Amino acid sequence: MIPSIPSHPVLTLDGAKRLEAGLFGGDETKEWLAMQHAGRALGLAALQDFRELAEFPGNARLLLLVGKGHNGGDALLAAQAILSHHSQARVDLWLLFGERALRPLAARAYRELVQSAPDRVRLISSAEELAEGYDLALDGVFGFQFRLPLAKEQAAIFTRVNRHPIRFRAAVDLPSGLGDGQALRADFTYATGSVKAPVTEATNLTVVGRLRYLDLGFFDLSADLETRERVLTEAVLAPLKALRPASSDKRTYGHVFILGGSRSYPGAVLMSTLAALHSGAGLVTAFVPDSLVPAYAARVPEAIWVGWPETPEGGLALEGFHLLRERIERANALLIGPGVGREPETLALLTDIVKTASLPLVIDADALQPMIVQAGSAPRILTPHAGEFARIAGGKMLIDFSREAHAVTVLKGPLTNISDGNAAYLSCHGGPVLARGGSGDILAGLIGGLLAQHPTEPVLAACLGVIWQGIAADWLARSHGQGSVRTTQILDFLEAALRDERP
Q: What percent of the chain has pLDDT over 90?
C-alpha cells in the first residue's frame, strides 16, 4: 500500500493516453478548457523560470515551433499568455506542417493567438527566416503519442534550432523527438496534466533539462493510480502552512539532536543546525568538537551547544559517547554525519550510536557507510548523493535498497527521489542552484528538524524537507540567479516558500 503522501503518479505514455481518454472521451469542449488551462499555466511558468537568467525583456522575441496537435495548441496559448503580459514582445511562429495540418483545437488556438496580437506574430516557414537570436523558444511540435524515428526533414530542422542562439528553451510535456539523437533540446520541460515516464529517466536529462509539473487537476477528476513512481505536489507543505495551536510550547514541536563536525569540516554541522532551527523544531541540541563550541554558540545562540571530546585530528572521539547517552531521552530525532570526516575512531563511534539508538535517525554525509547504515534497528532516513548511494546500495535500485534496508532513502540529484521501499517520490524543485557545497547539510538539518516533529512518519519528514528546500532554492535562483549566491541564502527563502510570497 502506497502511503498518503500528496503526490501524483508518473505514467507511461500508454497510461497517459488512457488517462486523457477517460477524462475527456473525445469531448472537444472539455479538451479546449484543459488546453486553455495548460497554455496559461505554461506561459506563466516559463516567465517565472526565465527569471533564473534575468528579468524577462519587455521587447522579447519568441520562437514558437508548432506541430499538428494538442502540444502545439498548448504552446500557442502559452505564447498568447506571454504576449498579454509583455506588450512589446513578438513571436516568430513556425507551423512545421502548415496551417492546414492543424487539428481543430490547435487551429482554434492559432486563430486566438493571431487575433489577439496580429501585428506581433510573424509566420516563418524555413530556417533561413529565423531571427538572429531569441529570448525564449517554445517547443510544441510533437506530443507524447509521437513515435520515433524522426523524419529527415524534421531532424534537420531540430538540429538547426538546437544550434541557434536561444536564451531559454521550453518544451511542452516532453521535448519533441525525445529518444532520438537529434531531438529538440530544452532547458525546462513542462509536464502538463501528468508526468510521463521518459522525462524522469536519467539518460534523457541533457535533452529534458529541468522538469516542471503543471498540475491541471486531472487527478482530482480521475481515480488516482497506485504507481510506484510518483511526483510530489506542493500540497505536501500544507501541514507547515497551518496556524500553530495557541496552547503549544517548544516541546510541542520536538527536540532534534545533531551530532557532527570536525576541525577539518567545521561548517557542515553549523549549516545543518541553522537549517534545523528554521525547520520549526522546538529545540535543537548540537554535539560538536569542544574547540568549535565558543564560535558556534556566539554565532547561533538559539541552539544548545554541547562540546564533545576530540581525537588528535579534531574529530569526535569515542570517549564522548556518555554525553549523548545521558541526554538521549530528551530527543525525538537524531541527525548524525554532517562534517564528521572519515576517521576510523569517529566512524566506530557512529556505528555504536546507531546500534544502540531507539529513536528515529537521519544519517548523512560521511556517516553513510555500509557498517553504519546497516547497524541497529531504529527507523532511519538516509540522505546520499549518487556516489554515496553507490557506496551503500551495492548495485541495488532505490526502491529495492530502501525496502531491504528498512530505511527511507533520499537520493539527491537533478531529480531528487525519496523512497520508503514501497514507492519513489520525485521532486521537480531545486536545480543547479543546489549544485554547491553545503546544500546537502542544509537538507539534512531540515529533515532532522522535521523528523523531530513527525517522528512516526519518516517518509513524510523526508518529502517535506526535499520539496521545501527545492522551492526555496527555486525562489533564490529567481531572485539572485544561479551563479553568484551562497548556499546559506536558501535559508532566507524558506519562510517565503511557506507563505507563498513569490519573488
A: 94
